[in-house]
Specification:
By secondary structure, this protein is an alpha+beta fold. Helices cover 17% and strands 56% of the residues. It has 2 helices and 10 strands, in the order αβαβββββββββ.
Length: 234
Amino acid sequence: MINISLLSLLSTLAFSQESDSVQADSVVRHRFIPTGIRVGTDLISIFKTQFQDDFSGWEINGDVDFHRYYLAVDYGAGSRTFRKDSGNHYFNDGTYWRIGVDINLLVNDPDRNMLFFGARYGKANFSQDLTVLALNEFTTDPVRLEYHDGSVNAHWIELTGGLRVKIWKAMWMGYTARFKFGLSTDDTENIIPSDVPGYGRTNKDSYWGFNYQIFVRIPVRKAPPVVVKAKKKK
């Protein structure tokens, strides 16, 4: 009789431990199912387009949450114009995209705000034109030389960091700082690029960028409650 009771107790304990283990594994796996998609835009690009004559562009940003990891995607377009008093004129126009991962350091925030760092791979395709005024050895009038590249590809790497804060219901605002490096462009026939859409000026080995963004969150499923651990009383 004692042996039967002992076996029954051991069996119950083993089943309970197995059930708890399966439940814990299920909770962990459930964390990594996305709960929402955020879609937004860069306000700085809009501002520069309205108030700068030498720039025109826009950018769409999005991310998907996988617990503390976020898949981030950006897509945009831009054009730049550089003019000099000498009459030289450079113009480019194209599109770009970035893809990467952000890691959220605020794991237990009830509003799921973000203080993050991450990385991106960026790629651009653009056209460019260059007009140069050169002296003519036979006359005093300058000669206008025009060059064109129809399709130039460029790619680079970014290290990112920033903040996302919930401001009202499904709206978030924040910023992203970008350290860009490793720029590589195709061998162009006529023009060395002076600027790359999505990257910036090419006269340095690295480049800093900054975006100030507003997002709208589209829910995919109900997010599990955030468990905030209580501090132990001393």
